[in-house]
Structure prediction request, 1002 residues.
Amino acid sequence: MNTINNTQHEHPEPRVGVYICRCGGNISDVVDVERVADVSRHIPGVVVAKVHTFCCSDPGQNTISQDIQAEKLDRVVVASCSPFLHELTFRGAVQRGGLNPYLYEHVNIREQGSWAHKHDPAGATVKAIRMIAAAVGKLQYSTPLDQIRLPNHRKALVIGGGIAGMKVAADLAGRGIPVLLVESSGRLGGRLNQWNRVFPTDAPAGQLVTKLLAQLDENPLVEILLNCKVTAVTGFVGSFQVTIEGPIGPAGAKTSAQATIGAIVMATGFRPYVPDDGEFLYKKDPGVVTMPEFIDLMRGQQAAAGQLVYKGRTIRSIAFLHCVGSRQIDGVHTPRADGKINSYCSRVCCTTTLQQALAAKERFPSLQVYDLHQDIRTYGRGHEDYYVRAGKAGIVFFRYHGDEIPRVEPADDQRRGTPSLHITFKDYLTWGEELTLDVDMLVLAVGFMAGDIPDLINMFKLPVGEDRFIQEIHPKLRPVEISVNGVLLAGTVQGPMNIEETLNAAGAAAVKASAMFLKDVVELNPYVAQVDSDLCQGSGACVTQCEYDGAIALVETRVNGKSIRQAKVNPGLCVGCGACVAVCPTRAINLNGWRLDQYDAMVDGLTADIPAVAAATTG
Amino acid sequence: MTTQLHKTLHEDIHLFGGKDVDLCMNCGTCTVICPLAREEGGTFPRRIIRLIQTGQKRLLLKSLDPWLCYYCGDCSENCPRQANPAETMMASRRYLTSQYDWTGLARLFYNSALTEILAIVLVGLFVTALFVFLHGPMVLSTPVELNTFAPVKWVELGDWIMAAVLSFFLLTNAARMIWNTLDGKQMFRISPLIYGKAVPVFFDHMFTQRRSRQCGSARSRAFWLKHLLLVTGYLSMLVLVLILLRWFQTDTIYPIYNPQRLWGYYATIALLYPTGAFMISRWRKKEPIHFFSEASDWIFLVMLFLTALTGIMVSLARVNGFPMATYVIYVIHLSIAVPMLVVEVPFSKWSHLLYRPLALYLVSVKKAAAAIPLKTQPETATA
Ligand SMILES: Cc1cc2nc3c(=O)[nH]c(=O)nc-3n(C[C@H](O)[C@H](O)[C@H](O)COP(=O)(O)OP(=O)(O)OC[C@H]3O[C@@H](n4cnc5c(N)ncnc54)[C@H](O)[C@@H]3O)c2cc1C
Ligand code: SF4
Ligand code: SF4
Ligand code: SF4
Ligand code: SF4
Prediction:
């Protein structure tokens, strides 16, 4: 089983160099690094063990490269900080020393050592030694690996032509990358086509759309497909095969087109929450409208009108209710059909509400305007101004608690010209006093719901969060990437965002996508499954187990003139999860870089008799 | 119980000088800052602002909080929205004064300086007319015979009539205050013992304004002293005029160290110095309490100052033997003092002299009453 390993050893015995970092005291204040080095020298195979104050510094890295030459090292361990920080740094140093970068192991003795065990220096020291022993053990079985290189098709697909998709397309095309922009409706701009003036600038929403449209129009690299949908996708990063069909809807003959795409950006946006019939009397009383409906009806007001009129009724008093369909509480709100409640804050509705309430008050000064909120979350630059101005304008604010939802009932007196709605709530700005308001209109500040894209979720295996939005790998460190390689997120497909945030996210996604096209090949980590054809019996257990379409399949192969079915891995699609390794009855599958024999060796290293080794140093 | 909201309350308060109520975002900084609210476990000034914003008139009328504030201005200084909570407290005191008053005159005077001045002038002319037509013989030889010109028993009678009328208005207004704040019927459920026990609180606060000394950082100790001086001057004046007039208004000229003269001079200084200083402070906007001045504030100070000034001039003219001057100035003096009292005592700023200690008295009554049935709920819950 270890035959390949042995033949690839340059020396009969591996020669390992171990470098222990002080991290300027971050590590050495707790871990006795000198002792770690002393003991490490006694681990079989270790030729050099050195301590350095900053291994990642130029002198630190040079020591490693030079030692590889001078001491004829063929494997290297650095025990330092988290691999997220410097694994690539030291791989580089190893490569400069003339060694395959995968004959390197990174041991984290800071986050998992000195920082975690501040109060147990002795324990942290022993732990560091054990982890180094495990790494050295693993390295005995390491083989040189190469990054997987796949052809990269220089063309991006953007799905969704809202402000996010438009921005991504404009940015990519601006950098010379051909873009295919697929929009399911007949018009670009998404939700912005519905809004009037948008905060925080109060510029007409249409202006933003027009500006981006102009950028798209003048760039020949952009191809826009309206009324179209992506209906199928195969392949992997660098070479996706996508099928696009259109026009959608019953009218006209459908056509379908194929394209080969290097990277895909999902920008399918969100849906405003639609209240259930009867929720706050929605659809039961004509005076109850959602925020999008309100924006629409305000746009429709006569230019010269002195009073707000809706459906033939004069509106003299109006209440805005925050958090409708957001910040819901278990046991208080009725779950949606999928059994979930919307516990998240939609982030945009507070400022929208204040902006719209203020606009209404400024347009119709005699209008009595009330605002019922849980909190005012005007977190962005310029948003708080709306709040201050709303106060100044005489809008009256009330604060309710999320578990005591305001009650909306038809007013007792239903004659024409009297308020039709009766709202009862406890106001926590007045120490929980129960108050009532009679108003002509109630505006429900509805929040965000994830877009309705089950087909895309299935097709791309998109990771869906608890809130139904598509989930990034890490909200801070990798905010626009998802676990599907080559697919990025832009805008509100990912969660509630205002336009500014949407455009920031879109810009980031465009940069990430551009970076993918810097080379004409896609380079991937070599940690993928590999089938040992000597052992594979073609049981197919791996194929059943694998979650990633096309990553592993049974194919006809000829062995000794006989045709048998054996598993074959597609390295572009395999993510190296290892599920197949666990189910193979003949142990025919291994993950490159994380082979089973390497695990065995690591366990041996971790459980080695350290006190004995330690005694050897003193003795 | 649900509260009916009064849409007009907040415009009303605006008329009484609470012009920045809308700016408040209910952050609560002012309440945290207020040394008096802290001490009382109170929730003002934010609560008062809130009641005004939302038009909860019932609760505002019921509240004693406005009287617990002595206007140090700390809250306004720290308000992140420049909503000027201290001035809102002041405005709510003016508003409450007008609400306790059943005649409607207080409201009229507060909202129109012209009406207030007109009322003062009318009463003044009435007093002048009384003297012009009814004065006794004017003896022009020395020593000055003031008691011949204006016999003390008649003046005293006038005093008493005025005092009776003013007391009637002031006390009925105060009764309305008690009725509002003790929630009507609840008033009778409290044992007389509790009412009795709390009486010292009333006099304690009336004479010392002890609480105003705990008020805020910006408030100088000098302010408290000046205010205290003013109160002693005022009370001296009332005692001398209402109770001791026969002893005070004499034709005999006593030596300078005689208590009759000394007390008079003290009262004069105790009125002149603080009112003068307060006017300068209002003019220059020195103390936070003087940053915002309504007409009623000026009228109060000016009238008080002129009363004291003419009073001392009467004394000087008499002692130095200028009969004509004495008589004329005496008439002017009363033509200022009387309208000042008639307008200010029940219907304007003066009334705080009664309402404030009364409020503290009622607070302590309420506290004592609440402690009995083991119910420490604040006033809102008892409705
Ligand atoms: C009531 C309300 C008022 C708002 N007001 C403001 C404001 O004043 N200021 C502000 O900054 N923000 C505001 N926002 C937020 C703003 O609307 C969003 O930030 C913005 O619309 C997000 O853009 P987007 O491109 O991510 O999504 P969207 O605008 O939703 O665009 C998504 C696009 O994708 C398309 N699409 C969807 N599914 C598919 C599919 N399967 N295939 C192809 N195409 C697809 C859709 O047709 C749409 O064109 C408001 C939001 C609401 C709810
Ligand atoms: S942004 Fe405001 S209205 Fe919207 S969910 Fe959050 S708190 Fe509620
Ligand atoms: S390692 Fe995971 S992704 Fe790769 S073939 Fe095996 S099961 Fe599929
Ligand atoms: S008056 Fe000012 S400090 Fe007080 S609650 Fe309002 S905003 Fe806050
Ligand atoms: S002025 Fe002073 S006493 Fe009055 S509420 Fe403000 S901080 Fe309190």
Notes: Residues 374-383 of chain B have pLDDT under 50 and may be disordered.
